[in-house]
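Q: what does this look like with zinc ion bound?
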Amino acid sequence: MPDAPADARAVDRLRALVRIPTIARPTSGPGPRADRDTFERFIATLPELYPRVHATLTRERLGTDPAANAAPLSPLAPGPGPGYTLLYRWPGSDPTGARTPTVLMAHYDVVAATDDGWRHPPFAAELVDHEGEPVVWGRGAIDDKGALAAILEAVERLLDAGVTPRHDVLLLFGHDEEVAGTGARAVVAALRERGIRPSLVVDEGGAIVEGVFPGLHEPAAMVGVTEKGITTLRLRVDQHGGHAASPPPLAATERLALALVRLNRRPARSRLDATTRTMIRTLGGRVRGPLGAVFRHVGLTAPLLVRVFRRRGAETTALLRTTRAVTELRAGHAANALPESAEATVNIRIAPGESVAQAVGDVRAAIGDDAVTLTVLEPSEPSPISPAHGPAWDDLTAAIDDVAPGLLVSPYVMMQASDARFLTAISDHVYRFTPFRLSAEERACLHARDERIRVRSFLEGVRVYEALLRRR
Ligand SMILES: [Zn+2]
């Protein structure tokens, strides 16, 4: 159990938040809507847990209603109805800093979970002894109530210590990140209208990890400086139906299947983008022996590294290129009738330096069949790259060093999409970093069963946010 009373209180507050099952649900399509009352309860609980924060900071409610059956909004359009995304403002001591605030982000919606298969129930927030240390068990313990609680705890402590940052500090807590909602976009629209250009944004992303890089035997703080683009492609073949007893040479299903096979045989090209090269140089700089030399001279050894990374597995391959995953197939209506249409959904993650148009063009070329129509859904380009140098980056890395002296810090390309990408419209310094130490096993529990966070790791995260705000 944590020793200091303040730490014990911090853990209790996190547990109180994990206990409120703010499960994200899509706002359109079939299936249940998010439970509005639960989200309201979460919002009402925050001032009880963090009284100083709520006595000093102002709080606005923006974005959409999690239970509303809203049509998908165009990018950057503010949502209608009452807002469930929270925007806090902590005024800085220097009024000229109001337009260049520090923004700390997290989201409080979580992926659905039932008790099924969990060692401890997902919404009980049990404090258990696991492998010799205390752990808070539950959905959202890391993603992303862990970060939200750590941010609020840090601000609470600084207020307690009488610290006021120079520039404004904004806290942006989304309610619909897990369903690619519009809350963060609504906040960006509001901030843009107010002429605000954040000088630093920190949102969920990389963590303090071990064993992710060949030959590296020490932990590293991985800070996402960009994220891959994302789009969904619908592939469709239409055909006259008819009796299955007299089929054409190529039924719609077969035509689509052939297209998918051709697509699979022609993956996007592999290369090392600039950020990945910097990551290889940074992490590889601590790898000994010939392998270390290969990493340090990435400019020369890139073709070799591409081959090595491709062989190493799906995760390192995804570092190299635009990926495509066929996620859904739909066709046919009876066992003895020809299908009138066949459809496939392809989820595409676009590598930095490439574009949605290029990725779609590559798919079209790989398929090489005009009978297969392509529809692009929800395109989102790769994010601009935030610099791994300069005052914002230096403050973040110095804060990490304050808490974990000598810890290796590296930029990287985040594969997953996050709300941070919307902030790149108003800030050039957007970093994706969750300041927790997470093992491979703990990372594997995100969006899966048995999500949990070590108390030690959570408290270290609180101190990183605290150290960061002391520098702003
Ligand atoms: Zn998340």
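The first helix runs from residue 5 to 18. Residues 107, 143-144, 177, 204 surround zinc ion (CB under 6 Å).
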